[in-house]
Design brief:
By secondary structure, the chain is α/β, with parallel strands linked by helices. The protein has a single domain (5-130), classed as Rossmann fold, CATH 3.40.50. It is 49% helix and 18% strand. It contains 5 helices and 5 strands. The protein is globular, with a radius of gyration of 14 Å. The two termini are 17 Å apart.
């Protein structure tokens, strides 16, 4: 399985730090940002393979951040995973309509996140072998 560069964006440092440690333990490379502007600043150099975005961010919500990340050169097809305290049908529908691959409800199930990253890593590996 190929290691993934995972951009984590959340305004609660404890949650983001814990997720970073877990993702690193799974063999991936996490990079954290506390808000949308911070994520947009780090993303061009980091070149994430996937972004895990809190939807209720200050200054710029996760929906706007997802759009703006995908507008960056080379990140147009960036897979987005929503992380939200809202798990109702309307919230899930909205994230799906915004192009998010998955919608995880806080606290996210680590097994579900690990499985999602595994699927994306295998896809990344297939694309790398095809080029």
């Amino acid at each position: 399985m190929d290691a993934m560069r995972v951009l984590l964006v959340g305004d609660y440092a404890d949650v983001t730090n814990s997720l970073s440690l877990l993702i690193s333990h799974w063999g991936h490379e996490p990079r954290a940002a506390r808000d949308g502007p911070g994520a947009l600043a780090v993303a061009p150099a980091f070149r994430p393979d996937v972004a895990l975005l809190d939807l209720g961010l200050p200054r710029m919500d996760g929906f706007e951040l997802g759009r703006r990340l995908r507008d960056l050169p080379g990140l147009g097809g960036l897979p987005l995973i929503a992380l939200s305290g809202y798990g109702d049908a309307k919230s899930r529908r909205r994230s799906g309509e915004a192009g998010f691959l998955a919608h995880l409800v806080k606290p996210a199930d680590p097994a579900e996140l690990e499985a999602l990253l595994g699927v994306l890593a295998r896809e990344k590996g297939k694309h790398a072998c095809a080029t």
